């Protein structure tokens, strides 16, 4: 893990775990999370996603690459090929993640970097499903 990783900047893996837990709590309870919850129910379920999102985000933020170690790839298209992601889904996902970042009290500079990256990923996943 790089000394300048986002994982380090936000306070370590325990903060990544808190972020993922808060995000999925919002998915399960906030009205804007309903469509994302339904996608997860068509997929592998929320419990599975809590684990795998933590695994992915650690590496995505420059920390240990748990997802890569476990699945031997970081291919977002492959991760999401079993679901169809619309612009509305992407917007709701981003809304809930933005709220989770606020509630976990991620510093503004780190939050900005993360949201910019998440927005690029969300756009790419919507476009993949339009092909």
Architecture overview:
With 131 residues, this protein is mostly helical. The protein has one domain: Globin-like, CATH 1.10.490. It has helices spanning 6-10, 13-29, 34-42, 46-60, 66-71, 76-80, 87-103, 108-130. Helix 2 packs across helix 7. The radius of gyration is 14 Å and the shape is globular. The N and C termini lie far apart (36 Å).
Write the layout of secondary structure elements.
Blueprint: H1 6-10, H2 13-29, H3 34-42, H4 46-60, H5 66-71, H6 76-80, H7 87-103, H8 108-130
Helix pairs in contact: 2-4, 2-7, 7-8
Q: Output mean pLDDT.
A: 91
| Number of helices in the DSSP assignment | 8
Query: Which fold name fills CATH's third level, the topology?
Result: Globin-like
Q: Summarize the biggest pleated sheet.
A: none
Under CATH, the homologous superfamily reads: Globins
CATH class descriptor name: Mainly Alpha
Radius of gyration: 14 Å
Q: Point out poorly predicted stretches.
A: none
Overall helicity: over 70%
Question: How is this structure best summarized?
Answer:
This protein has helices spanning about 5-10, 15-30, 35-40, 45-60, 65-70, 75-80, 85-105, 110-130. It is mostly helical and about 130 residues long.
Please name the defining characteristics of this protein.
131 residues, mainly alpha, 74% helix, 0% strand
